[in-house]
Please model this.
Amino acid sequence: MKEKVLHLKSKKFATRIINMYKYLCKEKKEFVISKQVLRSGTSIGANVAEANSAFSKKDFICKLGISLKECSETAHWLDILKDTDFLSEKAYESIHSDCIEITKLLTSSIKTAKRNMELEEKQKK
Model:
């Protein structure tokens, strides 16, 4: 269930990132950092989708770990865009809060998957 919520939220987040990228390019003429945040922000959902088709629990955890790293990178670029006044405080708060929410979901999913994997390993012994 949590994976479905994570998939939907990361997909919606990617859409917001794409729209922000278009805005930054068209209105602010910012092309470098916006491209970085486009890559990392859309990669989150792509890795979540890959995790949902993982070959094993370890593969699942690995893909979610990559998503978590991409989420951290995205938060970094959002901070830079705000600090350089390419994003208003209001726009930043809105998209950054979504990024933080996805980070929390990813962290929780990874912890749960690791715990379940450890339990399965103990039961095999």
